[in-house]
Here is the input.
Amino acid sequence: MSRIGIQPITLPSGVQVATTSGLATVTGPKGSLVVPLYNGIELKTAESSLTVLQPDTAQRNLFGLQRTLLQNAVTGVSRGWDKTLELNGVGMRAAVSGLGLTLSLGFSHPIQFAAPAGIAFQVSKNVVTVSGIDKQLVGETASRIRKLRKPEPYKGKGIKYTTETIRRKAGKTGKAK
Here is the structure.
C-alpha cells in the first residue's frame, strides 16, 4: 500500500477539481490544468480536500503517482512552479525578447529560445527564472535551456541550476623538462 497515495490533498481557497471520464480538471487563480486519471482510480472530493481512492485492479502500482500528479497540479494552479538557472562565464548574457529569450553563450551568434505556451521568463543579471503552472513543462524547459551550454568541469563556464554544484577538475600542470 502506498504511503503517499493515502494522504489527502489539501485544496487551497480558490482551487476546484472536477472529474469527467478519465480526466481531472484542476482550476485555480493562476490557470487550469488537466490531469489524466489512470484506469480504476477514482477521486473523492470533500470540502477542502481531495482523496485518491485505492483501486482493486492492476493499477495499484500507479496509486501514489496519481496522487503526486494531482498534488503538483493543485500547487501549480495556486502558487506556480519556478526553476532558476545561472549563467557563468565571460560574455554570457540573457535577455527577455518578446515571449522568448535571447542568449549570448560565447558562440558566434546569439541563440533565440522560444517560450512554450504557459511558460514565462524573468532575467536579472545572469540569473534566468523559468516559471509556469505545469511542473513538468517548467522542468523540461529549464533542462532544454541548460543543454544549450552545459557547465564544464574546469572553469565552471556554462548554464547551471542555482542549486547545482559543479564538481571541478584540476587542470594540467605545466611541468618544465
